[in-house]
Amino acid sequence: MLDLAIIGGGPAGLSAGLYATRGGLKNVVMFEQGEPGGQITGSSEIENYPGQKNPGESGFDFMSTWWAQCSHFGLEHKWGTVEQITQNPDKTFSIKLVGGEISQAKAVIVCTGSVPRRAGFEGENKYFGRGVSTCATCDGFFYKNKEVAVLGGGDTAIEEAIYLANICSKVYLIHRREGFRAAPVTLEKARNNEKIEFITSATIKEAYGDNSGLNGLKLNTPNGERDLVVPGVFTFVGLDVRNEILKQDDGKFLCDMTDGGQVKVDLKMNTNVAGLFAAGDLRQDAPKQVVSAAADGAVAALSALSYIESLH
C-alpha cells in the first residue's frame, strides 16, 4: 500500500511530492498521464514567479527543471490516467486507473487542475483543432505571417495576443467589455503593439469555414455584425476544474464541493474526508497562479505527513 498518492503532475502535484518525500515518506507515487509539468507548460511567457532566473521564458522551459528536483528524494511517477478515487471501509483509498488497475493508499492529494473553458459560440466545436485553439504556443506557428484573432480579456488572453504578434502579421483582440481584467502593465504592452487591434464590446457569433478548416468569424459589435476573415482564433475565456475523478458511482462526490465544482478545503488543504487533500486550481478560491499552486502542494504534503503520522 502507498503511503501517499498524488493525482496530477502540475506545480501543485510536483511540489507536494517534493515536500512529502523530503519530509520522510518513502512510498509516494504521483499519477500523471503524461510528462510532469501541467497546464502551465502551454504558456508562452512567465515573468511573475519569485526568484525566477529567466523572467519571460516559456512555461515549458520554466517547468523543465522541476521533475529532477522534485523526484530527488524518491518521488515516483506512475504513467496512467486515474478514473476514480474511492474510500475503503478501513478509511484508506483506492485509486482506479483507466484499464482497471487499482492502487491503494493511506492518503491522497488531488491536484488535477483545470482545463480551458469553451467560449460557446457557434462552430467552436466543429473547428476546434482546425482553426480554433486554446494554446498559442502549441499552434501559433501554423499562422506565421497570417492574421489571427484572440478572444478574452484576462492576463492569459493579453499575454498570448502579445506572443502571437511576434509570429502573425496582425492580431485582433476581441473582448465582450470595454474594460479588461488583465494587469495594467500587460495591457499597456498590448496597446502599444501596432500589430494588435482591439475589438471591444464584441462577441463571436459564429465561426465559419470549409473542409480545410476555419475561414473566419462573424462578430456582434456595437456597430452591427462584422466579418473577420482569419484562419485562426485563440480562445482564453477561463478554466473549468477537473473534478471527475472524485465522482462516485452514485453520482455524488467523495468530498464536499462548492456550487462551482471546486473542492472545499481549509487553510491546510484538508477536505472534509480525513486523509484526502486538494491543492492547486481544483480547490475553492484558487488564484490559478503557478506560485499559489506550488504553495498549495507544499501545504497539502505537510498536512498529509501529519495525518499519516497520526495513524501509527
UniProtKB/TrEMBL annotation:
Could you identify this protein by its name? Answer: Thioredoxin reductase
- Entry keyword Transmembrane: no
Entries under PROSITE patterns matching the protein = PYRIDINE_REDOX_2 (PS00573)
Alphabetical list of SUPFAM superfamilies matching this protein:
FAD/NAD(P)-binding domain
Q: Could you tell me the EC number(s) of this protein?
A: 1.8.1.9
Q: Which GO terms describe its molecular function?
A: thioredoxin-disulfide reductase (NADPH) activity
Which PANTHER family does the record cross-reference, listed alphabetically?
Answer: THIOREDOXIN REDUCTASE 1-RELATED-RELATED
- Signal sequence, renumbered to the chain: none
| Source organism of this protein record | Campylobacter suis
Name the top EC class.
Answer: oxidoreductase
- Domain FAD/NAD(P)-binding, residue spans: 3-297
